[in-house]
C-alpha cells in the first residue's frame, strides 16, 4: 500500500537574512592590496527571472575574457589533442566502479592522476586515501569514511598584509561534482572493479534488461595500465555530433556505462579545470578547491559535502570549518531552490520467542496503513508549501528452511519539501507511526512492547538532505555564474529556473554559502540516469570547452584573480564564510 503526494512548485518564497547573504562583507583585497578593503559586489534581486548583475561583476567578466592566460587555456581546450584528452579521461575514469559510500578506488585513481598526470605536488592534494580531510570537524558519515578527492590552487590572499581567516582557515571557493554512482550498488571484487563500456548503434532500440546489455559484444578496449586503446571501436565512439538526428544519420553510437552522464561527464571536466589552472599558473586571490565528491547518489546522504562543510545531520547545521565563501556545483542547470528530504529505513523484527503471535509483516503493513492516512501540511492549509512523501520500498527476509516465520521486514519512507518547517511537520506525523505500527501488532496479541514475544523495531538508516529556498535574491555565486554565461555565450537560459532540485548544493545553500550550479559535459543524447543501462552519445567538444571557460571565469570572479597584466580582480565576497554552527 502506497500513497504518493504530487509535488509542485509553490509561489511561496522567503528571503535569506542579510547575515546569510552578505557573507561578512567588507572583505579582503589581493596580495597587492596591503590589507585594504576594496568595494565588494552586493547581492541583488531576481526580477521576472532575471538576476540583476552588480557592475563590479560585469567589469570583472570583461577583464577575464581579455586575460591572456584564460585565452591561452581556451586555445588549448579547442585543439584536437585536448578534445581527445578529455574524451579519453572521461572513458578511463567512468569505468571504475564507484558505488556510493565505496568510492575509495575512484578517489585513489584521481589522487594518483593529480600527482602523476596533472602536475600537482602531493601537498596540493587536500584529501587522503583513508577518507580523512584535515581541517574538517566531520570525518565519518553514517559510520563510514568519506572518500572525497580534492586539490587546491593556492591563492595570493593568505600572504597579504592583514589577511583574515576563520580559525586559521583562509577563504576558499569550491567547485565540485560527484564521483559516485547508483549502479553497481555494492563494491565489486578487485578483479571486477572496471565496468565494460558497451557500444550500440544509436538507431537500435535502447536495452531494457541486463541480459540484453550483456549480449552487446562491442566494447571499448583498455590496456593493462587502464589507458584506452585507439582502435576502430574507439574511432566510432569518439566521433561527435551536433544533434541527435545527425548522430542517427552519421553512425553514432550509444556508450552504455553507469555514471556516463551522472556525473562523470561533468566531474572529469572539473579535473580538466584543475589541470589547466595548474599548467598555466593561474593565481587566484582566495584559494580555489576543485573536488570530486563522494556520497551524492542513493544512500550516500551527501556525505562528501557534509564533510567539506562540517554539516552535522543530527543538528541540521553546518560549521563550514574550511571557510568556503562560495560554492559551485557541476551537476545542474542553474537551479537555486533545493528540495530537502528526510529518509528513514526501519526494520520490523519477528519476536525473539517464536510462536503464533505478532508478525513483522503485519507490523510493517500496519505502519504503512497509518502513513497512508496522513495529510501533508498543504492538504491541511492553503498557505503551506506542498510536500511529498512516499513509502518507497517494503521488503521482507525469506523464512529459514522449514519455518514459516519471516525474520524481519524493512520499510523505506521518504519525505520531501523545499522548506525545513514543512518537512519537520511531516516528520512529526510520520516518525511516530513506526512505533505505533509495532505496538498495534503487539496489542493484537496482548504482548507488551519489548517482551520476547513481541515484534521489535530498529532504525537502520536515517538520511537528511537539507532544504533551501533562494527566493528573489541574486546571490554572488548566481551573479558570477550568470554573467560568465552571458560573456562566454553558452547556456544562456533566459531565466533562473523557478523549480527546485536535490543536489550536493543543498548542503552549502542551507548553510548559507552563496551557491550556484551548471553542467560541464556535452552530450548530444543520453538516457538511463541511475539505471544499469545509463548511456550517452558524444556532443560538440567546443561547447564543452565553453562550459569549462564559463566555470573558470565564475570561480575566478568569486575568488578574485591576479590578471596576466599584473592587475588584480578583487574577490567578490568577504574573507569569512557563513556558517550555522561554530567549529567545535
UniProtKB/TrEMBL annotation:
The keyword Signal applies. The keyword Metal-binding does not apply. Keywords: Signal. The lineage of its organism: Bacteria, Pseudomonadati, Pseudomonadota, Betaproteobacteria, Burkholderiales. Residues 1-33 form the signal peptide. This is Acetylornithine deacetylase/succinyl-diaminopimelate desuccinylase-like protein. It comes from Comamonas odontotermitis.
